Amino acid sequence: MSNMKRKLDENDVPIPTSQVEEAKKEASFSDLGLDSRLLQGILKQNFHTPTPVQSKAIPLALEGRDVLARAKTGSGKTLAYLLPVLDSILKSKQTSTTRYTVALILVPTRELAEQVTKHVETCAAFCAKDIRAVNLTQKVSEAVQRSLLADSPDIVITTPARAASNLDSSALSLEKLTHLVIDEADLVMSYDGEEFLQQVSKGVPKGVQTILMSATLTSEVETVKGLFCRNPAILKLDEAESEGEGVSQYVVKCAEDEKFLLIYVIFKLNLVKGKFIIFVADIDRCYRLKLYLEQFGTKSCILNSELPINSRIHVVEEFNKGVYDIIIASDEHELLGDEDETKEEPEKSGEDIEAEVLAQIDTQDISEKAKEPSKKKRKMDKRDKDYGVSRGIDFKNVACVLNFDLPTTSKSYTHRIGRTARAGQTGMALSFVIPSSLYRKHKPTTTSVSKADEKVLSKIIRHQAKKGKEVKPYAFDMTQVEAFRYRMTDALRAVTSVAVREVRTRELREELIKSEKLKRHFEENPRDLHHLRHDHELRPARVQAHLKHVPDYLLPAEGRKGITGDVGFVGFKKSENNRKARKGKKPGFTKSGVKLKVDPLKSFKAKSKK
Known about the structure:
Blueprint: H1 2-5, H2 17-24, H3 36-44, H4 52-62, E1 67-71, H5 77-93, E2 103-106, H6 110-123, E3 133-135, H7 142-150, E4 155-158, H8 160-168, E5 179-182, H9 193-203, E6 209-214, H10 219-228, E7 233-237, E8 246-253, H11 256-268, E9 275-280, H12 283-294, E10 301-303, H13 309-321, E11 326-330, H14 350-369, H15 375-384, E12 398-403, H16 410-417, E13 426-433, H17 453-466, E14 471-473, H18 478-481, H19 485-494, H20 497-517, H21 519-524, H22 561-564, H23 576-584, H24 600-603
Parallel strand pairs: 1-6, 1-7, 2-4, 2-5, 3-4, 5-6, 8-13, 8-14, 9-11, 9-12, 10-11, 12-13
Domain DEAD-box RNA helicase Q: 27-55
Pfam family, one: DEAD
Protein name: RNA helicase
């Protein structure tokens, strides 16, 4: 009788009971034994099933084990360490009402600290009275930091430098600490992080549960592990990618001026659709490329370390909401969120801000022109250049990462392309490479980082091949693209060095004013932030309106496919229905089969009325 109740497969063979139960049981957060209030907060964020790193790390952390987890970007590492910490705090509140700082979360940059703080708020939305978190990376005075810590918040989120500073001043007390989390453990070693972590380790009591999260397991992570961990459970999670998922990687070998030509063709002919992150070598090229795209009516916003922290955070938030489609990010030091002075500065007048901006730009221009840095400086650059915008920041629904300027290492390349194809989606990475024979052949558009492009590309190809991934050539038909060269030349003529310097100064001054003077107003009126746009026109010296439109006579007879062949946009998800719909769709007709009206002036097929 028992066999009669068992399910049969397609061959009428009884299925083992264990497989039936496993099939019925779907992984969910409720199976992890978390507090019901946290489950409500998770559900509010539309998270239903835990990711692999969450399903493996959370039970270990709830048992009190130290955890060292390596998981790729976008795999849900933040919730993997936050949920056990929050659950432990809620359980301790059932027996004691005294408030202590029991959790310290160390992150490498302010942007990450802001993201983690928001995750705490959303996860603890239904138990906000029981959990208080403080972000110490905000630009406030030491007195304000002391007042924030005086109430003994449950969770302190900060950088190693800020943590060490507040430990020295006795503002931060770790006597009752039970949880220590280090997010992006390899990245916190930058900014002289090792020195600050050594100071923090002296203030951390013995027996504290430690959770380390990282995208890679490097020697830096081993150093952090030796400082804080006791026989941790090591999780190496390289989730297998489903068929059709992941990043499709392409490369184009071109001349220096052809970078600008190709990016014009890509955007004006919509060869690649969706949201873009464009990486350039330095801040100056950020504004040069933005001004160039404005000549054709293409809007974009800028992200670099020169902009105020509030502006940078706002740019990322609006990009994730879909307000902006293109971010031009400088990766000159590949560091985002440099530590600023903690002392509160007096309010500046417009003249003071302008003088400060000019001095800041002059200083950087001088440093960029220095031909031979000292050995000490070169050593610091080597240590820092692998990190920056390409790491940690949570960009959502990025369709394409465009390496306008190739990074200096294969490791940095991997981190950059990790901004797309997140959370099970697909994406595309396109890189422009300058052959050594074409380097410095077009001085107005040249950049020193392109000198070693071919060597870096060979390392990238080898590194990706080890992962079973291929870097393919993007099939541009340059004979067809050449028809647009005169438009590129006209646009580049308008983007002079003087114009770049002027708009860079004005943009930074405006962002400083937005960031500082309107900060309190936006705290009280958050909806007004929507009226602050970062993709406004910078108004170069000469605007050529005719460049905004692409005349039909420039297009090849085969249309866009005549330029790129079959290579093009890689969608987020595969859809057979979409393929069938595209296949059956006729030009000049809607999906329902209704014939579209044709403008006779565009078709040149007008007939006179009799």
